[in-house]
Amino acid sequence: MTTWLPDISRGIGPMYMRIADSIEAAISNGALPAGSKLPPQRNLAYDIGVTLGTIGRAYALVHERGLVAGEVGRGTYVLERSADQPAQQADGLAGTRLVDAPPGKVRFDTTAAPDIGQGGIIGQLLADISREHPVEIASYSRSFPPSWYEAGRQWLSRNDWLPAAENIVPTLGAHAAAIAVISAISLPGDKIVFENLTYTQVSRSARALGRRILTVDSDEHGVIPDDFERLCSQQHPRLAFLMPTAHNPTLVTMPADRREQIAAIARKHGVWLIEDDLYGGMSGDTNPLLISLAPERTFLVSGLSKSVAAGVRGGWVACPPHFAQRIKVTHKMITGGLPFILAEAGSRLVLSGQAHAMRRRSVEEIAAREKLARRHLAGFDFASHPHVPFLWLKLPEPWLSGTFKNAAFQEDVLVDDEDEFKAARTEKPYYRVRIAFSSPDNRQEVEDGFMVVRRLLENGLASYDGVI
After folding, report:
1. For the residues of 277-325, what is the DSSP string, one character each?
2. Do residues 316 and 171 lie in contact, with contact meaning Cβ atoms separated by under 8 Å?
3. Residue 228 burial (10 A CB sphere; 0-12, 13-18, 19+)
């Protein structure tokens, strides 16, 4: 066994990333040659004075970079790597999420719409568009047809709220919509509020744009009004990004009275709001939208990715009056423009009623898979919703979130640990993982994944020799 220790005095970013970078550097310079065994995680944590979870995260990261492999009962070893196969580089802004999963893994780490046969319908639709609009496909989308706005108006409307077509902007998905709003409404150095746990692809993008991140506390009903009031009065944020319905990852849905309080606080302090409603149309939630309570300062974003087809990249944002042109121009600047064939496909899906039919079928499939989750994980503590494609699982002792993620990976199951959803560095542990179950090809694969998760939960660290 090697006596190598990482140099954590240098580098930037969270401690686990510095440890992972040190391991990669040692492999590159020969200090850790192919076949050498990394120190046991528990020993290394003690030797350098960090938590076991930090080491687990670091080992998981170098595993994802293709540098090491774990062998049950033997430990973690450096892999042989030829000169023409460089290691994957993890993006410090994007965390440790895998972009391309290794083959044979159960994808419990993505919430894209399930495959309910939409490929054939969309394929025919794209063929029709190509035949009918050859000139538009060959050029840039310089002007948007009225149908694109009408489709957004219909898709975003919910709970007796209906936006005006002139306030709609078609976008390259909900994520691009949120970033366009942040870019248009704030300047570098401005403060943006996110919940402690959130969809961090937006918070990381905002940080990359030079915005400063503030976090607000939440409870079982969503954002805590008193803490939001404190932040607004003391820190003077420019904007807040919120998910009031089927929050990702906690699944909390904010009740109506709290939405009213949040809207009133934002109005009092002049704070703009982005309301992420991606799961709203799936959830059946009847609470009023924030945009209906504060229409003069709320941007509502949603799209087709979770319930119709992520590959279409269809999305829209409903803006306060007189802001649509500003958001449209900003969206073009940050994305390069909206591809005609995708925007036309998304609009036709909505206006023909096919998108709504696909959403209903997706929700039916998600409900069947959520029922499997409740059956296979019975007795464990988790939050789920029959129409939302993920659950938020509380880990029993002695599991840590990062360690469980790594153990699941070694069992060919990909899950997201809690750090994937933290908008900023925090010492608060939740001891949870998010398990998304919409992407596996079929229900049998979903069941197989749940059985692996249950086995790990029941056996604890006894089933994961990598920490010994």
Report:
1. -TTHHHHT--SPPHHHHSTTTEEEEEESTTTT-GGG--EEEE-STT-HH
2. yes
3. buried
* 368 vs 9: CA distance, rounded Å: 50
Is residue 197 within 8 Å of 345, Cβ to Cβ?
no
Round to whole Å and give the CA distance between 248 and 251. Answer: 6
How far apart CA 428 and CA 422 sit, in angstroms, is 10
The pLDDT tens digits along the chain (468 residues) read 457 888 877 666 678 888 988 898 888 888 898 888 888 888 888 888 888 888 888 888 888 778 888 655 567 888 876 544 444 444 433 344 444 556 789 999 999 999 999 999 999 999 999 999 999 998 888 889 999 999 999 999 999 999 999 999 999 999 999 999 999 999 999 999 999 999 999 999 999 999 999 999 999 999 999 999 999 999 999 999 999 999 999 999 999 999 999 999 999 999 999 999 999 999 999 999 999 999 999 999 999 999 999 999 999 999 999 999 999 999 999 999 999 999 999 999 999 999 999 999 999 999 999 999 999 999 999 999 999 999 999 999 989 998 899 899 989 999 999 999 999 877 788 999 999 999 999 999 999 999 999 999 998 765 555 544
Whether residue 433 contacts residue 395, with contact meaning beta carbons closer than 8 Å, is answered with yes
- For residue 43, the tally of other CB atoms under 10 A from its CB is 14
Question: Do 107 and 449 form a contact (C-beta atoms < 8 A)?
Answer: no
Backbone φ, ψ for residue 284 (5° rounding): 80, 10
The tokens of 287 are what? 């609470």
Q: Which two tokens stand for residue 302?
A: 């949603």
Question: How far is it, in rounded angstroms, from Cα 271 to Cα 266?
Answer: 5
CA distance readout (Å), 146 to 149, 162, 341, 355 = 5, 16, 15, 18
pTM higher than 0.85, yes or no?
Answer: no
What residue spans of 87-242 are helical by DSSP H? 118-132, 134-138, 146-156, 174-185, 200-208, 225-235
